[in-house]
Amino acid sequence: MAVAYELPQIQFSLDALEPSISGQIMDLHYNRHHRTYIANLNAALGAQAEAASSNDLVKQLELQAAINFNAGGHINHSLFWESLAPASSGCNNIAAVAPTLNDAITKRWGSFDSFKTAFEASALAIQGSGWQWLVQDAQTKWLELTTSKDQDLPKGGKGVVLGVDMWEHAYYLQYFNNKKEYLTKIWDVINWPTAEKRYKGDPRAVFGSLAGLASHL
C-alpha cells in the first residue's frame, strides 16, 4: 500500500508573518496550494501501487512525472514553512541565533549584506516559477546559491540550508509583480535557527521523513 502524506503543521498562526507575508497569502499558499500537492501526490502514489501490482510498467512510467512534481511541491513547501518564523520571535537576527552559519556566509560572500544581494539577484533572475536556494556541498561544506525550476529539488544532492518560494502564488496578492520587495521583506521572517541546524547537522535529523521521500525522486 502506498504511503499517504499529510499536510504538516505550521508552528505559527497564518497571519503571524505580517507584514512580510499576509495572512491571506499564507492561507491560500498553505491550505490550498500545499494541500493540493499532497492530494495529487497521494493519488499518484496510489495509482502507481496499483500499476506495480499488475506489472503495468508503462503506467508506472506515465505516473512518474506527476509523482516528481507533487512530491517536490510537498518537500519544498514543508522546508519553506520551517524556514519562516514571525519577526517577533527574534529568529531573524542571524548573528545572534545562527553564529556558525553567519560566519560561514561571511567567509563565503564577504558580508551578510553581500550574501543577501547575491541571493536576491539569483532569485530575481528566475524565469517563470521556481525556487531560490542556499545549499551546502556534502563533501566540502561550502555554501552555494542555486535555483530550481517549478517544484524541482536542488540538483546534485546538495543539502538545503534555506529555500524561498519564487512562484507567483507566494507573493502576487500582496506585492503584485514586485518580486524585489517580496525578497526584501522576507528577510524579516527567516528562521535562522532552523537554517543553522541544517547547516551544522545531518539533514535527515532536521527533515525527518521528508529526507527519505527526497532520496527516491
TrEMBL record:
Protein's organism: Cladophialophora yegresii CBS 114405
Classification via InterPro entries: Fe/Mn_Superoxide_Dismutase, Mn/Fe_SOD, Mn/Fe_SOD_BS, Mn/Fe_SOD_C, Mn/Fe_SOD_N, Mn/Fe_SOD_N_sf, SOD_C_sf
Documented EC number(s): 1.15.1.1
Keyword Mitochondrion: yes
One GO molecular-function entry: manganese ion binding
Protein name: Superoxide dismutase
Catalytic activity entry: 2 superoxide + 2 H(+) = H2O2 + O2
Functional note: Destroys superoxide anion radicals which are normally produced within the cells and which are toxic to biological systems. Destroys radicals which are normally produced within the cells and which are toxic to biological systems.
Reported cofactor(s): Mn(2+)
